[in-house]
Amino acid sequence: MANAIIVFGSTMGNTETVADLIAESLNHEVKVVNVTEVELSDIKEADLVLFGSSTWGDGELQEDFEDFIDEITPELVGEKDVAVFGCGDEMSYPDEFCAATDIIREKCEAAGANIVAENLRVDGEPEDSEDEITAWAEAL
Ligand SMILES: Cc1cc2nc3c(=O)[nH]c(=O)nc-3n(C[C@H](O)[C@H](O)[C@H](O)COP(=O)(O)O)c2cc1C
Known about the structure:
Layout: E1 3-9, H1 14-25, E2 29-34, H2 40-45, E3 48-53, E4 55-56, E5 60-61, H3 63-68, H4 74-77, E6 81-88, H5 99-110, E7 114-115, E8 120-123, H6 130-138
Parallel strand pairs: 1-2, 1-3, 3-6, 6-7, 6-8
Antiparallel strand pairs: 4-5
The site of flavin mononucleotide has 21 residues, from helix 1, strand 4 and strand 6.
């Protein structure tokens, strides 16, 4: 079975909940890891890499993911299958809704990753978007 790693940055726990929901629906052997604890070797060994970050400030990365983003290099994700997800608040931040997912995706594309899905943008409580999250994960 192919293996996947889900690396998330989450301040209040919402993106962590999404990471766990994705893991339940993936057709892979899967590891879910907080970005503060991830081993780069585990990312290098994965067939599929999923990066998740909520958006803070005004369209910025979650703080732990901010500390990690420059680790995304061609050596880490070049030619690897990658997809990006995150939580945000569309009503309060319509112009910067889940903007962190765009920042991560651009970084991965610049590093030569093979982006395999549109970014998953979860608005509000993850529990209200379970069907959308499950469908996104099952399609990977
Ligand atoms: C101070 C503050 C700034 C925020 N900025 C944004 C933003 O720019 N864009 C967005 O989509 N959501 C924004 N949000 C909403 C959070 O991303 C949202 O609450 C998310 O579910 C938090 O996920 P987490 O628990 O995984 O960190 C902001 C929330 C707060 C409190």
